[in-house]
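My main concern about presentation is that the manuscript never shows what a single data entry looks like. For the editor and my fellow referees, an illustration may be useful. For illustration, here is how one protein appears when written out as sequence plus structure tokens:

***
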Amino acid sequence: FTTGLTLTPILSRILGMPGGAAIVAQAFLLTTAIFGVMSVFALRTAKDLASMGKMLFIALIVVVVGSLINLFLGSPILQVVLAGAGAILFSIFIAYDTQNIVRGLYDSPVMAAVSLYLDFLNLFISLLQILGIFNSKE
């Protein structure tokens, strides 16, 4: 339900633009490709990404606070910066969560699946915002 509430406004705005369906498809394909690349990276790298957890959480808080501030400012430039930071952040989260799943650090498979789902969804939303802003005529 919550996912629908957060995804519907941006999807309706993008789909209302000329070529909106192509933008959504492009964002989905980019998200899928990044998800695959970051998952393979997490499986192949010798670096332990578990130590990045606190840094990723702090970066997530900064992006959320920045997004809340931008609700009041309405700055398109800040929105692009936040969406770009979100895309990078959730790409790293995909690698982090994938490695944690492989190492058995999740209590249940459901929590592991939800973590990857949220990473995918938030990456998709970030890319959708970036592509929507750069393809708008305003």
Observations:
- The chain has five helices and no strands.
- The chain has a mean pLDDT of 91.
- The two ends are 31 Å apart (CA to CA).
